[in-house]
Amino acid sequence: MNGILMMIIALVVLGGAYLLYGRYLQNKWGIDPNAKTPAYELEDGVDYVPADTNVVFGHQFASIAGAGPINGPIQAAIFGWVPVLLWILIGGVFFGAVQDFAAMYASVKNKGRTIGYIIEEYIGKLGKKLFLLFCWLFCILVIAAFADVVAGTFNGFAVDDAGVVTSTIAANGAVATTSILFILEAVALGFILKYAKLNKWVNTGIAIVMLVAAIAIGLNCPIYLSRSTWHLIVFAYVLIACVTPVWALLQPRDYLNSYLLIFMIVGAVIGVFVSNPSCNLSAFNGFNVNGQYLFPILFVTIACGAVSGFHSLVSSGTASKQIKNEKNMLPVSYGAMLMESMLAVIALIAVASFADGEAAAQGLTTQPQIFAGAIANFLTVIGLPYQLVFTLITLAVSAFALTSLDSVARVARLSFQEFFIDEDTDMEHLSPFKKVVTNAWFATIITLILAFMLAKVGYAEIWPLFGSANQLLSVLALVACAVFLKKTKRQGVMLWVPMFFMMAVTFTALTMTIVKLFTALTTTGLTLGSTMQLIFAVLLLILGVIVAIQGIKKLTEKTDAKQAA
Predict the structure, then answer these.
(1) What is the three-class DSSP state of 495?
(2) Bridge partner list, 2
(3) CA angle at 313 for the pair 310 and 318, rounded to the nearest 5°
(4) Residue 278 CB neighbours (<10 A)
(5) What confidence tens digit (pLDDT) does each residue in 356-390 have?
(6) How far apart are CA 147 and CA 52, in angstroms?
(7) Among 42, 115, 359, 435, which residue's beta carbon has the most beta carbons within 10 A?
(8) What pLDDT digit, counting tens, does each position of 383-419 carry?
(9) Which fold, 3-465?
(10) Signed CA dihedral, 509, 511, 513, 516: sign only
(11) pTM of the entire structure?
């Protein structure tokens, strides 16, 4: 097996899946291109904002990708390239893309409401409350993990084992400058998109010019700050981004980033075809590798590249409120997920291109560095400078994580607020307590304080728990969507196999995590971060089991006469 063959297999499978299975789902569920979408029906200029397909696709893809499709396959490569590739392709087509499409479809058909509200409508109020609590705890984990990733890619100083600064990191400094410029340019682009009413191709041209300018300035004017300083700056940015109207920052920033991310993927694909890297990974290394069991570890490690519960929050929490026409849901949800699976395949090819110990010998120790280093190696074949490509790929990975970061923070804020609001709540006459807890600033600040405490634990420590919780969230989303489809007399059998398989995976993985943390508690003791992880793990497992049971009861009960529009 070589890089080109692996790439061709992925392109054929994913492209065919979109044309065949994606359209099959669209026909089965029923898309009404003449229906008034929530973006128009409830337009408020903050969350409900109609946007062109390419803008919403950019937001969806940039938000769901994050660091997951790069980190997951590289970490899971210990099991061999065959199980990794199979899970990316099978999971992406039949699990992840189906979940994302179903979540967006259910949301659009329910006034752009989140999965939490869908659970309340079709499963019950208790289920909604428990799901929102689960969702909020999960989002805290995501914010903590991705904030640490972003701070790491911005960190301008290399340190030795004693913590003494040994040198500056030019690539990271350039990434930091460019990312800051992206944010400032996004605000300007947001006003252009909203008020100038230019042709979409003119908007695209402006976005690309802004992108190139930011990169050029970043490469020549790097900013050098420590990881801890960037932690503070990143969380301050997220606080502001979380309550800013989507048209002023979220939409245009994702629009800008989507071009960078797509250019990165196209460049990586070209790099694979021109260099045809060999595969230095074994095909299969067994079901138990260094104490790590293929089941369930493979399926929680490769999350975003195959199936990710977080995607359902973006599909139903932000993207569904921007859909102009129901026919746009297929490319925005199903299509974006398949593109993410392609990114995961590229990450697998990247790590497979290194011989054993070769990446570490080149100073590539983290998953983003391994990915960036491999793509840079591929593109040097056509004469591109290694350092330039390495910096640009690092920038793209950082853009993934930063985009996911403020998207999930917004979802966490909405989940916290929704927890205290019922369908019949009188928003004009809230009690003093509810006025405080439903305040956007209060909900954001309390979320970010807890996430900041966890971020200090470090991405590597948080990832196993994040992966398990993320996949359990996909179970709950699949259950909710399956119940919605049944109650509205639409076919939902295609969600059943993914739902029950992921139940087995996530309940096993979370139980293993709890046992590991509890063993550490009774032997060597736990740090503050580990203690928080244990508490989170127990709460997430309990909440997930209860919501899943409630959903399955609704799924197996006799169908009533209720039919939604």
Answers:
(1) helix
(2) 278
(3) 130
(4) 12
(5) 888 888 878 778 889 999 999 999 998 899 888 88
(6) 29
(7) 115
(8) 899 888 888 888 888 877 777 787 788 888 888 888 8
(9) Amino acid/polyamine transporter I (1.20.1740)
(10) negative
(11) 0.85
DSSP structure string for 271-287: HHHHH--B--S-S---S
- The Cα–Cα gap between 111 and 560 comes to 22
Please state, in angstroms and rounded to a whole number, the distance separating the CA atoms of residues 69 and 404. Answer: 12
Residue 504 burial (CB count, 10 A):
13
Which pLDDT band, with edges at 50, 70 and 90, does 48 fall under? confident
Cis peptide leading into 277, omega within 30 of 0?
Answer: no
Measured at the CA of 67, the angle between CA 62 and CA 72, to 5 degrees, comes to 130
In angstroms, rounded to a whole number, what is the distance separating the alpha carbons of residues 95 and 102? 11
Q: Report the distance separating Cα 474 and Cα 299, nearest Å.
A: 12
- Give the number of other CB atoms < 10 A from CB of residue 250: 26
Residue boundaries of the structural domains of the chain:
3-465
Whole-angstrom CA distances from 455 to 193, 529, 533 are 35, 9, 11
Q: Which amino acid is at 18?
A: Y
Per this entry, what is the length of the chain? 565
User: What span, in angstroms and rounded, lies between the C-alpha atoms of 123 and 113?
Assistant: 15
The residues, any chain, with a CB within 8 Å of residue 290's CB and separated by 6 or more, are: 78
What's the Rg (C-alpha) of the chain?
A: 22
Q: What are phi and psi of 384, to 5 degrees?
A: -75, 140
Q: What angle do CA 376, 381, 385 make, to 5 degrees?
A: 50
Rounded distance between C-alpha atoms, residue 433 and residue 443, angstroms: 12
Dist. CA 272–CA 110, nearest whole Å: 43
Token pair in block for residue 353: 């291109």
**Cα separation of 137 and 502, whole Å?**
19
pLDDT at 135 over 60: yes
Pairwise CA distance, residues 307 & 93, whole Å:
9
Handedness of CA 20, 21, 24, 25 (dihedral sign): negative
DSSP code at position 355: P
| Nearest to 227, CA basis, from 183, 178, 140, 165 | 165
Burial class (CB in 10 A: 0-12, 13-18, 19+), 34: exposed
> In sequence order, what are the residues at sequence separation of 6 or more whose Cβ sits closer than 8 angstroms to the Cβ of residue 111?
38, 41, 42
